[in-house]
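ASSEMBLY PREDICTION REQUEST
Request ID: AP-0331
Submitted by: J.K., bench scientist
Number of chains: two
Total residues: 232
Priority: normal
Notes: Please return the full assembly, not individual chains.
Input sequences:
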Amino acid sequence: AQKITQTQPGMFVQEKEAVTLDCTYDTSDPSYGLFWYKQPSSGEMIFLIYQGSYDQQNATEGRYSLNFQKARKSANLVISASQLGDSAMYFCAMRGNAGKSTFGDGTTLTVKP
Amino acid sequence: GAGVSQSPRYKVAKRGQDVALRCDPISGHVSLFWYQQALGQGPEFLTYFQNEAQLDKSGLPSDRFFAERPEGSVSTLKIQRTQQEDSAVYLCASSLRWQGASSGANVLTFGAGSRLTVL
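STATUS: Completed
Returned structure:
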């Protein structure tokens, strides 16, 4: 079974500062992928970044990076230089060999001006 | 199509009515997922198709929920005898088949969702 845990229901960050959103996961699959999605108040799910379980380097996409620590089963999202438009709900998810994808409960990020 | 299309965007049903929610995935996407998202919560897995085969329906809350994808493209989620607790946003997502861990092609693309309100 797959499980995603996001322990921060809400986070605040000052504009232009960096913020880390936590995610831990549990799976028995040897091969899996980890994702982060952003969901603004408008409701659409926007893909941010992907990390494969065999990838040696942490994934980066613009201001987003994924701090992947396989032994700890963690996949934290780091957002650098926060912007007001980053205020949204953020979901960590995983997809395993069977193809099924599981999501966490999310973290609401608020960027303060 | 260019994206995942869901219809209707909004549906209001009286308790006891049957509803059908449609998902048109990205052309060529083999995998299709249905999720239920309550307000302020994460998407909860309902069911998963690969082509027309329903590989996992473990998340369907009751036998009132039924999903199909008869030709391996468009999918319909049907809810019979709706109850108030069925009120939620129903999200559909599609992707290529699982490509192995290192492939970014495993990403799910979501539709805008269908918001169901049961009165």
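REVIEWER COMMENTS: The mean pLDDT of chain A is 94.
SIGN-OFF: pending second reviewer
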